[in-house]
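hi support,

uploading two proteins for the ticket. first:
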Amino acid sequence: MALGSNLGGREAHLAFARQRLGELPETELVAASAIEETDPIGPVPQGPYLNQMVLLRTGLSPQALLDACHVIERARGRERRERWGPRTLDLDLVRYDDVAIETPDLVVPHPEVGRRPFWQRELEELIPHACS
């Protein structure tokens, strides 16, 4: 799961997301990568992001996990007004085991995973935890 924030108390938003993800039913937050500051992606002028990847162990379905993520985002003031726009909190389901999903609401693996080098670094940091 990828976490990102570029508005307000960015570190506090990420900490909130980690806590709330770990509190989801049938879900354990196994590990978290280091937090990395990155330039924004897309055409909208905005400030830099703080990004982090977390590894979850969950019994929730991918869609249920995505729905829970949207609730967590809204709890931090996330409004989905503009694609690629600034956000208090952005939670992306990057991978879900080896499952491939393509629905109007959810694509897994996330289509941007190969184009975001910081995600690759963060995922590599979590690999040892995924194998235990």
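and the second one:
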Amino acid sequence: MKKPKYIFVVGGVMSGVGKGTTTASIGNILQSKGYCVTAMKIDPYLNVDAGTMNPTEHGEVFVLDDGMETDQDMGHYERFMNLTLPSISYMTNGMVYKTIIDRERSMGYGGRCVDVVPDVPKEIIHRIQKARQHAKAEIMLVEIGGTLGEYQGLLFLEAGRMLRLENRGDVLFVLVSYLPVPPKIGEMKTKPTQYAVRSLNAAGIQPDVIIARSELPLDKKRKEKIADHCNLREEDVISAPDIESVYEVPVNFEKDRISEILLEKLGLKAKKKDMKKWRALVKNIKLSKKPLRIGIVGKYFGTGDFVLSDAYISVIEAIKHACYSFKRKPAINWLNSEEYEKNPSKLKELKKYAGIIVPGGFGERGVEGKIKAIKFCRKNKIPYFGLCYGMQLMVIEFARNVLGMKGANTTEINRNTKYSVIDIMPEQKKNLADKNYGATMRLGAYPAILKKGTIAHQAYKKQTISERHRHRWEVNPEYIEILEKKSLVFSGKSPDGRLMEIAELPKKTHPFFLGTQFHPEFKSSPLVPHPLFREFVKIAINKK
């Protein structure tokens, strides 16, 4: 294929309709047709990256191998498409403006007047093309975050329009739009989608395909109506009803022949047809009937009167991957750690779960409740898995209640603690003193060496691993010897032995009491569940 192809994915009517899943699913399908495909996420906010944003506002911060803190949709791309994406596959308005302003300050524009148009769209196009070239991709998927009609995304749409104008026949636009079914009316409404198309038309763009998201499948009448009012063929309107598992989406899209439609519009033909592994995965998910109750103890759940599970989306997906590999249906419950601080008697509810996870986080709120939950899991031999902060709190709990270090803590919470078993990494002190918070943590993939004969080594079945990190604090080296004397095993360490990567109790003491300083959830996929999540689920299934 001589000329590269581009597919832009945009959203209409409202946010959260599934643009990320749609993009990842289209990528998955096109890969199955024999094409080299990559994906990019564009977020239209002025933040330079996602690293400093509150998870309850933006959702999970997904960390790439090279350390870039990105949007959770990047995780969807990696999981569905089996990719390891680089930082150039992520773009924000903040990045674009910062680059342009820095270039202007260094006379990169030769002293001429720098304008919003065309200079901003040109920089956007340059970044898109650079990401495609880096991946050597034949087809590039570009998801533009936000919703049509928002002023933040106008320049990205303009960039897409300009790229399409320069590359006629090589650029498509896919609109993901929501079709509500108002309960009091009981009829699926197409008018919001029609207005979304008009909004896209106003930007000089005609959608090539519409993904019709709704609670129910799209009927023929609605398909005809959307096609007629939006200047499309009926087959260009793809039904995307709510389904139990997002991993069914590629299979559902193919029922409406989406790959044939997209490839035809791009002037391409399928090189092969191979969705066997993915169809087998979907079949396995549907066969997973017996529930396995897993509790997640955290604090990033509430947003007003609603629960935002997106704050831990990769953790949830990693649990699902592991459960499906044992033909178990994950029954995940959110457990607010602050409730255990107010009412410790509620800790007894943890016995109802096959396993408990304390995921990553920052700050003081809800911490004592998490520590109480960890202690309960340790004493009652409930399988426990701590991720990042969850490992640090596990070490604190052990120091307090096994070593008798009353008030042991992390200096993140109490700088004056007598027993600073968790302390800030020396190289991080200046960053905090200078209030330099963005992209300054220990970020990205780092290697670790595993200790033979441990749960971690048994799970990975190898001695050297590489995992993604996002932290400033670590186990204080001054306390490692005394912790190890009391049977806390540091089964994973950095190659120089300076940083503790995995902590666990021996299997003879506890079936699974393990924490990681890294985020294993970022490297799990439905076809290859993460070994630690799989080991955790295996032990949880066998819990008496």
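thanks. also noticed: The mean pLDDT is 92.
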